[in-house]
């Protein structure tokens, strides 16, 4: 079952066009959204939450259409995206009383446990919190009403290392029963490695450059150092990069088994094979 389905979603600003975006998020999975600064990650979250109006396309969440089922859908979404600034004059506790009113599923015990876990002072005015503290408050509010889906825009950015570790533990626990889902943007490879199943890469011009299934890419992407690079290999649809400026030459593939078979059939010797770590794969995708 798909928890999120996006079709042809577009947003045009004067100097930036996002989309058309097409993808699905399966229930029970965690998706990492990566892309360079300004590639449209925050805009994408705002579109999902109908905080900016799309110029085209459709969004379905929990099988219901946005924006016609907006209120119902939002009751089951935990959203953290630096949206609490308008409450800068209120204390964390005062903001929590608004949240508990808005969300029938608000879990006061969970909220208090998280406040203690992240060592926050509930009496502090939100506007006086540091950047990292604000991120933690945002994170706590997103989790305290027992959502089915979390949408988190760079949740760990600017957060101290100890709290980053706790956030990851909390997200892994959130996903544990396989019923709940997560989309989070991040610039941190560890977030992707430790939490996400799939990765959406946004190109600088606001398009989905790739949708990577983490298990598949770790299995399929590899570098082969070979005795020779034939023309056929250079043009092979699963050879995505070659380098013959050094000896031995190497090729990069996103289909290890296909290329391995091809090399064997053509009698080309493989000097060595290296699996590609996820960070190199993402780096390659972001650079290409
Ligand atoms: N309200 C707006 N009006 C005009 N342009 C906007 C508006 N909001 C965002 N943009 C532009 O859309 C582009 C994408 O911005 P967005 O904040 O979504 O990127 P991002 O991927 O989240 O970046 P970062 O990684 O730096 O947080 C940027 O060029 C930005 O200037």
UniProtKB/TrEMBL annotation:
Domain ABC transporter, first and last residues per copy: 4-229
Keywords: ATP-binding, Nucleotide-binding, Transport
SMART domains linked to this entry: AAA (SM00382)
Alphabetized Pfam families for the sequence: ABC_tran (PF00005)
Coiled coil feature spans: none
GO MF assignments: ATP binding
PANTHER family (UniProt xref): ABC TRANSPORTER ATP-BINDING PROTEIN ALBC-RELATED (PTHR42939:SF1)
Name used for this protein in its record: ABC transporter ATP-binding protein
Organism the protein comes from: Evansella tamaricis
Taxonomy of the source species: Bacteria, Bacillati, Bacillota, Bacilli, Bacillales
């Amino acid at each position: 079952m798909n928890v999120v389905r996006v079709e042809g979603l577009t947003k045009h600003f004067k100097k930036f066009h996002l989309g058309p975006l097409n993808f699905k998020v399966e229930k029970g999975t965690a998706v990492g959204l990566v892309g360079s600064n300004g590639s449209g990650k925050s805009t994408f979250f705002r579109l999902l939450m109908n905080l900016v109006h799309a110029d085209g396309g459709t969004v379905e969440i929990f099988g219901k259409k946005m924006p016609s089922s907006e209120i119902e859908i939002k009751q089951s979404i935990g959203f953290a995206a630096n949206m609490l600034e308008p409450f800068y004059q209120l204390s964390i506790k005062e903001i929590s009383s608004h949240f508990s009113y808005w969300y029938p599923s608000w879990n006061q015990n969970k909220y208090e446990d998280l406040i203690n876990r992240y060592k926050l002072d509930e009496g502090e005015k939100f506007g006086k919190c540091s950047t990292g503290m604000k991120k933690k408050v945002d994170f706590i509010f997103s989790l305290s009403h027992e959502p089915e889906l979390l949408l988190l825009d760079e949740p760990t950015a600017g957060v101290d290392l100890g709290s980053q570790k706790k956030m990851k533990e909390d997200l892994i626990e959130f996903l544990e029963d396989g019923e709940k889902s997560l989309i989070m943007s991040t610039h941190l490879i560890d977030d992707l490695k430790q939490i996400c199943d799939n990765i959406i890469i946004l190109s600088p011009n606001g398009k989905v450059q790739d949708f990577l299934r983490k298990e598949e890419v770790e299995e399929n992407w590899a570098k082969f150092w070979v005795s020779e690079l034939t023309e056929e290999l250079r043009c092979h649809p699963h050879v995505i990069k070659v380098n013959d400026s050094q000896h031995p030459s190497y090729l990069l593939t996103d289909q290890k088994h296909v290329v391995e078979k091809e090399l064997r059939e053509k009698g080309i010797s493989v000097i060595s094979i290296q699996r590609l770590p996820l960070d190199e794969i993402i780096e390659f995708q972001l650079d290409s």
